[in-house]
Amino acid sequence: MPAQPSRKPGPPAETAETAATDTDGGTPLRADAQHNRDRILEVAREAFTTQGTDVPLTAIARRAGVGPATLYRRFPTRASLVSEAFAEQLSICVSVLDEALTDPDPWRGLCTVIERVCAMQATDRGFTAAFFSEFPDAVDYNRERTRAEEGLERLVRRAKDAGQLREDFDPADITLLLLANSGVVGESRQVSLAASRRLVAYLLQSFRPEHTQPLPPPAPLGLQQLHKARRAT
Question: pLDDT, tens digit, for every residue of 111-141?
């Protein structure tokens, strides 16, 4: 289920910490305010990873040892907390993709991206929900994700041009793969990783040009289409 802005209004300010100036205003947070912010993000990442992004924000505040007012001051909506919590993971994905694009072997680069992103997905339930969600207000997050999509398209084209990838492969097939891979997540970390690796190995073999039986047309599974479908439901 996509992350949605919280409709619950933030409670009134409750401590001196909530009066500290935010980094958004150009002034660094006080040490105690920065500690609270870091603690909220730490707890949120753990909760989103193990339970998904629907964890009540009040529960995150309680585990972080802060009041709801402090959490809402730092992260006014669920979307802002989710996007910040997984910004590092998205940055890692983009870095992996950038490295793959410089690999002289396009097929190896494509395999590396798919294997590493799927392994991250298999061990991090929250990242899957965040990746497939839309955050209209998170400009940097959406910009990075758009850059990742464009990089994947270039990587696919390179592998095709090198004769290493079947010609009827479509970039939307990567989204299809990620959706399929998300279905193996939910057991222990060890089981999820083992199932993900086997599924990815099967699929990567089917992507090779030696498999020439024609496929049905690709499904419209770009992230933009997924976002539109989610908004319609």
Answer: 999 999 899 888 877 777 666 665 555 556 6
Q: Which residue has the higher pLDDT, 162 or 216?
A: 162
Give pLDDT tens digits for 191-221. 889 999 999 999 999 999 986 678 888 877 7
Count of all residues that appear for the chain in the document: 233
User: Over the chain, what HEC string results?
Assistant: CCCCCCCCCCCCCCCHHHHCCCHHHCCCCCHHHHHHHHHHHHHHHHHHHHHCCCCCHHHHHHHHCCCHHHHHHHCCCHHHHHHHHCHHHHHHHHHHHHHHHHCCCHHHHHHHHHHHHHHHHHHCHHHHHHHCCCCCCCHHHHHHHHHHHHHHHHHHHHHHHCCCCCCCCCCHHHHHHHHHHHCCCCCCHHHHHHHHHHHHHHHHHHCCCCCCCCCCCCCCCCHHHHHHHHHHC
Residue with tokens 């419209």: 220
pTM of the model: 0.69
N-terminal to C-terminal alpha carbon distance within the chain: 11
